[in-house]
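Case study 2.
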Amino acid sequence: MDQGGLCPACGEHLGKFDKDVVIDHDHSCCPKRTSCGECVRGILHRRCNSVIGYLGDDPDKFERIAAYLRGAETAFEIYRVLLLRRSLSSL
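Prediction:
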């Protein structure tokens, strides 16, 4: 897994491996704090990993937040953007 020294979540430099850098894994495979090793997704900043955890590993929540930050005017607009992306990705 070559990440080029960058956090795949935020794209910033990881720095040295210390308390601010963690190994991220898929919690649907291993729900506890440790991983079996097969479900490792990457090495992240602790803060990035925390955000993923706070949002329950739910990509739709990330999309809604991104749409909100980009200026979607209403919840309906955010929902419409999500539906459009899903329909395009299924093509």
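Residues 58-91 form one domain.
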